[in-house]
Amino acid sequence: REDSADHYHHYNLFSLGFQGTLRVYTSNVKACTDYKTIRVSTQCTTRSVIDTVLSKFKISCRDTNLFELWMEVTTKANGKAVRTILRLDHSARPLELQRCHPANMSRFMLHMTSEGTLVRVHDHNISPQVGIYNFNMVLL
C-alpha cells in the first residue's frame, strides 16, 4: 500500500506539472548580473517568469508590461549551428518549450522594450509637509 505522504507528494507534483529550472539571461536588465536561475513548473507562464525575475532583483520602479522574454534556439543545418530568436507570448510556458530541445540548445533572455515613458510623480499633494517636496520617477 502506498504511503499517504508519498501519495500526497505525487499528487502535488502532478497538479503543479513537472518542476525544473530556467536560466534567464538578464544583463540587458541589470548590468551587474549575467543570469538568474529560477525554479518553475511546466504550468508557469512567461508572465510569471518575468514577474519572478524582476522581484528577485527588487525592480519595482518599472512597469512589468515593459519586459519581454525571448528564447534563443540553436539547431544544426548542414553541420553548422543556426540560432533562431523568438519573442515569447505572455501565456507561453517556457519550461515546456525548454523541454522540447536537447540540453544547452536553448536559452532565455529578459529584455526591456523601448516603448516606455518616464514619468515624474510629485507627492506633495499626497503627504503635504511644509517646504518638503518629494517625487519619484516611474517608467511606464
What does the model show?
With 140 residues, the protein is an alpha+beta fold. It has one domain: Roll (Ubiquitin-like (UB roll)), CATH 3.10.20.90. Helix content is 21%, strand content 36%. The chain is built from 3 helices and 7 strands; from the N terminus they run αββαββαβββ. The chain has helices spanning 4-16, 46-56, 94-99; strands at 19-25, 35-41, 67-77, 80-87, 106-112, 118-122, 135-139. The radius of gyration is 20 Å and the shape is elongated. The chain starts with a helix and ends with a strand. Residues 1-15 have low confidence and may be disordered.
List keywords for this structure.
140 residues; alpha+beta; Ubiquitin-like (UB roll); five-stranded mixed beta sheet; two-stranded antiparallel sheet; 3 helices; 7 strands; disordered N terminus
